[in-house]
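User: Hey, quick favor. My workstation is busy. Could you predict this chain's structure for me?
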Amino acid sequence: METLALLTHPGHWQIVNDGVMGGRSQSELSEFLNANQQYRLRFSGNVSLENNGGFASVSRTLSQEEQQILQQAHPGGIRLTTLGDGKHYQLRLKVLKQGELVSYKANFDTQAGRLEQWTFAQGEFIETFRGADYPTRPYPDLTQLVAVGLLIGNGQTGDFELQLAELAIQYTQASQ
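Assistant: No problem, here it is.
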């Protein structure tokens, strides 16, 4: 099994907070080396329910080269390693489906100060659109993955910090 690492190139990441709907949440993404000199991304900020707000998110668009790798492979799942803050997050995907971008989510809970690893299979993602979930719809086709991201919301307020140690897509090469 091979992996396609997605933490590199922090310039490919984009912050999208509830300000798009008038909310007041704030977040940022920064890169740093931890005490052991290991590369990390820090997704941090403050979630506010003011002005109908309540979420902060960050997403990364896959490059054309990364998309081609997945289109020619058999993606098996997405591996995520974080140092959490005890809050609830979502791993978000955008997949091209019949010419349209479709969003999916998988939930995960962190434990404060603990390094944790998850592997999310296709079947763990639920289609979602503007806060509504569609659990009976088909799972995402990871060969058509366009973007990955993280979101914090669900009525949680206050400061948050999630350190990303790894975000990678596991895959096997397609037979020639």
